[in-house]
Amino acid sequence: MISTNNKVLRSLLRQQILEAGEILGVEAREIPGYESYFALADGRIASVRTGKLIFLKSTPIKSGYLQVVPCVDGKPKTSLVHLLIMLAFHGPRPEGK
Fold this sequence. Notes:
It is a single chain. The chain has helices at residues 4-24, 81-90; strands spanning 28-30, 37-40, 45-47, 54-55, 59-60, 66-68, 71-72, 75-76, 79-80. The chain is an alpha+beta fold. The longest helix is centred in the N-terminal third of the chain and has 21 residues, at 4-24.
């Protein structure tokens, strides 16, 4: 359970991410299904889950795509960066694709 203070802090950090994106000229959007995670239009994934703004470290896999490991429901979930960007900016992947 998240305390009220943590909720307020996360809300403020969310606003800071969105404002920082505007200042840098990079759009930032929340990633649906990934609470407290944001995708930036420049390809970075940011988190305010711990109460601090952090950028997740992306790691290349054999195919050349980048992956990150955000926590979803308290468990690490390996995710491809380009799919998180698509999810945040365009919505879920179409069926059969």
